[in-house]
């Protein structure tokens, strides 16, 4: 209904539909929108996601799964990706929308271009409804396919906006997969927007894509709050600390993963007018 109502309001007659792939939904929408433009089916696409799960059935379902943090007495410190004391994610609510546009069309109307969308990929863990694959193979495959699809060299990726939802298994699996793919890059920096927003579920990828684009545009990457006691084997030279950091981003990758084993990775870079 959201896509249909927006199309009616704007009078846009191109592709209009919704996708549901759990917490990877927004990235699926962004990449699908880009593919419509690449195929020449449209010049512009609004894409992203919204979610509002703080209702009895939403809280009840995630509680039954054992996925939520129990730090109810200290809510501002409950979402703590990669911290030794993390115990589950914190549900947030929100939305994010990006306007993707064919380059010449954007230049013709003198649009302000914040970043270039390079591409991405999806995969499935094909393993478990809730738990990530213990070897992170689905995540590694997703990242490698995203690099191949977009023609990006792995050494050019120096910023990762991670899925990192503050879950015991998921945070470490993703970290290890990222290092497997990019660990030889001495400039690599990783952060998690969810440390500050909680997990926005279907909206997470869009909000985190916006955070990624803003990092490219401003040269600042936001902190990982509540990362006070890093889990074993984590390199704090790679993870952003408690304060924002300056970074000249060459290529940024944003991950979103969902229950059911849905994996998605999308890539952005600074726009260079050549």
UniProtKB/TrEMBL annotation:
GO terms for molecular function: 3-oxoacyl-[acyl-carrier-protein] synthase activity. This is beta-ketoacyl-[acyl-carrier-protein] synthase I. The keyword 4Fe-4S does not apply. Keywords: Transferase. Belongs to the thiolase-like superfamily. Beta-ketoacyl-ACP synthases family. SMART domains: PKS_KS. Signal peptide: none annotated. Residues 1-270 form the Ketosynthase family 3 (KS3) domain. SUPFAM superfamilies: Thiolase-like. Its EC number is 2.3.1.41.
């Amino acid at each position: 209904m959201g896509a249909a109502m927006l199309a009616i309001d704007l009078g846009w007659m191109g592709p209009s539909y919704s996708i549901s792939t759990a917490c990877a939904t927004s990235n699926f929408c962004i990449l699908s929108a880009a593919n419509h433009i690449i195929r020449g089916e449209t010049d512009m696409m609004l894409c992203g996601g919204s979610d509002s799960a703080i209702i009895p059935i939403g809280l009840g379902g995630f509680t039954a799964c054992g996925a939520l943090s129990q730090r109810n007495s200290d809510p501002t410190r409950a979402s703590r990706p990669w911290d030794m004391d993390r115990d589950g994610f914190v549900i947030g609510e929100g939305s994010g929308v990006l306007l993707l546009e064919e380059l010449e069309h954007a230049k013709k109307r003198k649009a302000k271009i914040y970043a270039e969308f390079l591409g991405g990929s999806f995969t499935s863990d094909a393993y478990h409804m809730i738990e990530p694959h213990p070897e992170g193979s689905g995540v590694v495959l997703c990242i490698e396919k995203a690099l191949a699809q977009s023609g990006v060299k792995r050494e050019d990726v120096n910023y990762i906006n991670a899925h990192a939802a503050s879950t015991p298994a998921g945070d470490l699996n993703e970290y290890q997969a990222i290092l497997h793919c990019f660990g030889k890059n001495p400039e690599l920096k990783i952060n998690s927007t969810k440390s500050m927003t909680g997990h926005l579920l279907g909206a997470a990828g869009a909000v985190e894509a916006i955070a990624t684009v803003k990092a490219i545009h401003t040269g600042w990457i936001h902190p990982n709050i509540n990362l006070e006691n890093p889990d074993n084997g984590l390199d704090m030279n790679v993870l952003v600390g408690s304060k924002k950091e300056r970074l000249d981003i060459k290529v940024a990758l944003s991950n979103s993963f969902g229950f059911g084993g849905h994996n998605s990775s999308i890539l952005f870079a600074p726009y260079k007018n050549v």
